[in-house]
Amino acid sequence: MSRVKSKNLFHFKPCGILDEDVRMMEEGEKDAPEYAEVLQMQARAAELEQKNDYESNMKYVSILRSACAPYADLLKSCSKFQDSIEKTITSSLTVPTTHDGEFNVPVAVYTPTRLENDSKRVAFIYAHGGGGVAMSAADFEPLLQHYAVEFNVVVFNVDYRIAPETRCPNNVKDFYEVIKYVSAHTESLGLDPTKIIISGDSGGGYICLGSMVLLAQNNETDLVKLAIPGVPMVDDYIFSDTLAMTLEERNSAGMMRKVWRDLIAADFEEQKSSPLLFPGKASEEVLEKFPPTVIMECEFDQFITEATRLANRLRRAGRLLEFVVVPGAGHASSITPELKGNEVFFNCLKTVVKEYVDEENRELTVAINYEFNHGNSN
Length: 378
Known about the structure:
It contains 13 helices and eight strands.
């Protein structure tokens, strides 16, 4: 494959300082009346991280899912999405699969009303976050309806099966099969077959990357115009010495080791070298067949090191268009509307869609020359 050509759209400089609103949010959580319960839950989770039996694992999953619930509530109550919700037509489809029994993958479809009668629309296929073990497609509906309207795309919100009920590689294959289905039915879905985007954030970023591995392995890269994994879980860096990690990586090490080893993997020892479990371990031959890729990251994300390593490898393989690192932002900045970093993350994502896929509508793109005042950076 020929090397992709980057437009070098973004020139952010790391600031070395976490955004004030992120710090205030974290401090506010500590002052909340229920913080004592949070500490108890964290202590219980730490105990369960040392065990690996069915009962302990399901208790651990319950804790993770409870911890993610406030983010779903936040997205559903966000007033900034209301206008987009009213300008979106919601429908659904199911994609039949047989890779892990007979299962129809549910997919919610969000179409901007202005595109209702258009027959050459851009597809944006999305894998939701939640660490691969929590949350659902429905939790992200308001955010993705906003994406549909603001990006001028039809969003396919994939409710892939999560762990531990469904293990690798079947979680990835759910999303992969939806990509194949959408590509095969572009005419009936009113889509431009040359303008299919795949994306996902956090655990959904891992699902997106795993699907990119499958596309490359099966010589199906041409089905996708652009891939945009965001703040993605990439590889097993988290199993290395925590002394060399960033603070965010160190703080999440116990959790992520548990998630990968005991929940997502079907057999960790057998799969630990597989790029379907850890996409960052894909060979150079496979990376060279990846779709054109933009990786979206945040400076203080717990996956920044592994995402940076993958970005460097993809750049050398000629498949990286942009590696965007939002200064001052943390992992939650990617989906938390009230945070400053979220607006930057969103605007960068919108710019990427317009510049690399939907260029004729580039006039809808917001300015991309952002200025920050984070103080002195190193």
